[in-house]
Amino acid sequence: MKKPLSLLIFLAALLNSACTFHKIDVQQGNIVTSDMVNQLKPGMTRKQVRFVMGTPLLIDPFNSNRWIYLYRLKSGDGQLKQYHLNIDFKDNKLANYTGNVPEEETGVKH
Fold first, then answer.
1. CA–CA dist 38, 110 (Å, integer)
2. CA distance 72 to 81
3. CATH number of 23-101
4. 3-state secondary structure of 24
5. Which H helix or E strand runs over 102?
6. Which end of the chain is more exposed for a tag (fewer CB within 10 A), N or C?
7. What are phi and psi of 22, to 5 degrees?
């Protein structure tokens, strides 16, 4: 009787270890690369900026001359990484850009 019980316990433990859940990474927003940011030059038109950067996640509702690119990554282990890039236009031309984008991801130095 002891042998089947120990075998049952072993199989239950083995099955339990195989049923652990894998948590996936969740990405949201715009992915911005260093190549993209390095292509931004003052005086570019909105169309040129959109071609390089893609469609912004937001256009500032209080300032239509500001495009906002946001990115958020929550890894399966619970770590959270977020950044943003604001692009400002004056007379429909790129005036400047600012943000808290990590250098290792985009090469932006602000």
1. 13
2. 6
3. 3.30.1450
4. coil
5. none
6. N
7. -100, 125
Residues counted in the chain? 110
Beta strands in the chain (DSSP E): 26-29, 58-59, 66-74, 80-90, 93-99
Pick from 75, 97, 100, 85: which is nearest to 30 by CA? Answer: 85
Tokens standing for residue 57: 């996640």
Continuous H helices in 19-77: 34-38, 46-53
CA 28, CA 51: separation in Å to the nearest integer?
20
pLDDT at 39: 92
Low pLDDT (below 70) residues in the chain: 1-3, 14-21, 102-110
pTM surpassing 0.90?
no
